[in-house]
Amino acid sequence: MPALSEHLIEEILIRIPTPRDLVRASAACASFRRFVAAASFLRCYRSLHPPPLLLGVLGPRGFLPAEAPHPNALVASVLARDADFSTGHLPPRGRSGWLPCDARDGRVFLISSDPAAGSVLPELAACDPLTRGYALLPPIPDSVVASVLDPAGLNPSNSWPSYAYGCFYWKGLRSNKLLKLDANRMEFSAVGLPPNHENGQVVVAEAGEGRIGILRYFLHQEIPSLCYSIMQNEGEDANEHLMETTIPLPSDYHRYFIVGAAEGYIFLEGLRYIDQQGTGRPCARSSAFFSLEIKTLKIERVCSAPGGCVAILPYFGFLPFLSPRRI
């Protein structure tokens, strides 16, 4: 080791593929720890290894950390102990207060349906659960608000949109089409879906090489499974060269719901009905959240959710010492 220059040591450390292994390497000696703790090293490492860790989900009851045997369970338990996902330190906003609406790179974005005086639109805030720092975001310009219409007349369903390649997608209600909003051009268009997607749950994901992947789940199925279709393009012949895969889901849950998509993952809630009174009819339920990695189609159980949740936000974050502590 003495023969290695500091530059070579840094080049070796920055090529360690996962944050967990980087933590182990930093514990080897004081000099390694000094390299890894440097702000310049951490910025470079995050740029080379951009995907943060899946640490849990945000629901109506707060943060639910990933549970064993999930590989990030230990880090998630540390985050749940040290971070603050409450909103008591934000400026008060009427009766409804602040509600989480998105989470990116360890930050949580909140929305207030009781905007400040003189504002018509809800307010937005970005928060750092590790430092309790926050910033109120500037209001959306009126010109942008006026442009958010539905020219395609698809009547999008009342749910959070999917996001892929700089575009937002809403499933049309009882329609075999998607409503697409190009966030760069602020333009709407309609995208045709493969056949028989009118009534199922549909989510859009990035399938690589500019293609979009379509995942479909029907509520009433004897064997729980997802249908994954990769669309080669969005033109009139988009459905002529579909690549379809059927993905079986864990059979110990009776019903599934697609509840989100982020960072190359699809998130599902599995419901299990329990007969607690010997009546032969399901009278109670338990639920758990699962992640499906689009690249590998691997399914992992993330955490349990007592009582179930209507909607969740997947929370991806860095290890505490890798987190960019600025808001």
Automatic annotation (TrEMBL):
SUPFAM superfamilies given in the database record: F-box domain
Domain of life of the native organism: Eukaryota
Protein name: F-box domain-containing protein
Organism: Urochloa decumbens
